[in-house]
Design brief:
alpha/beta; Rossmann fold; UDP-galactose 4-epimerase, domain 1; 2 domains; 7-stranded parallel beta sheet; 11 helices; NAD; carbohydrate metabolism; UDP-glucose 4-epimerase activity; UDP_G4E; EC 5.1.3.2
Length: 350
Amino acid sequence: MNDRPAILVTGGAGYIGSHCCRALIAAGYHPVAYDNLSTGHRGFVTGSLVVGDVRDETALAETFAQHNIVAVMHFAASSLVGESVADPQKYYWNNVVGTLSLLKGMREAGCNRLVFSSTGAVYGNADSSALPESYACAPINPYGTSKWIIERILADYRIAYGLGSFCLRYFNASGADASGGIGELRDNETHLIPRAMMALQGHVGDFAVFGTDYDTPDGTAIRDYIHVSDLAAAHVLALRLLMQGHSGGAFNLGTGTGFSVREILAAIAAETGREVPHVVMPRRPGDPAYLVADPTAARETLKFRPVHSDLATIIRTAWAWHRTAHPLKTGETPCSEAGLSPAAAARSRT
């Protein structure tokens, strides 16, 4: 019998969820990853794994009872902006309905602590200043809207049912665990940094810069990049406050510094010694020009200060992960560190 407090981590086999499971173990908790493995990887899981969907009320009830869950970290969601514009039903069904199912299971189990994976996309078309939490939320794509709806639901649950909940608004999660054991691994990669690295490796032949006519210094979109290990640390800080009776709230998780697409590509070239091959395409629907966090509130309330989120560390850890995790394109001459390890091969098949 594990005597550590059990934390349910929905989406615990995914990119951010798996990093949080590792942080929970280091902090003295027992993570129970709950994941349908539609995009997650069994090999990423540390702690216990329950294969299930958050919309499966019976499976959730059994999991809460079996593991004596004391709090939940909720990452399970669809999270691609472009896809959300093309298929909004998927996003409202997976994200909003899935969260309502989870909340129902929590109430029935008497579990009243939740750390929720939200997003800076709730702000929509922001101006060129770093955004505080008081900035008006006006999402411009269904992904951001689904997260904003959930934030409003959680605010109502906080008042009506005494649910303690932190809504952590991520900006651009990036980088990989320093061990090289886990990182970003998706069948259909759309995020800038991993996709650029896959282009360098020969796995992506159509890497594009979407939009060079934004009202930014170099014409490309600007984002705030935060290392995934720092995100994990912030979740543990939020959990500890909930365990101490804090009621929660909404907080940005970012650095307060933005980098353009061109600056990211330059940093990748500096780390790898190779220019990223790319074409220029029109802007994508739903992409704002500028999205940078004001991290003041998280620093003051959560006592959160990123320690891995300088751009050099983000790019270095991401590149180390990609050289281990992705097999080389057929016919490409391998370098000493780029072969697929047996563990990574197993992950890629899940």
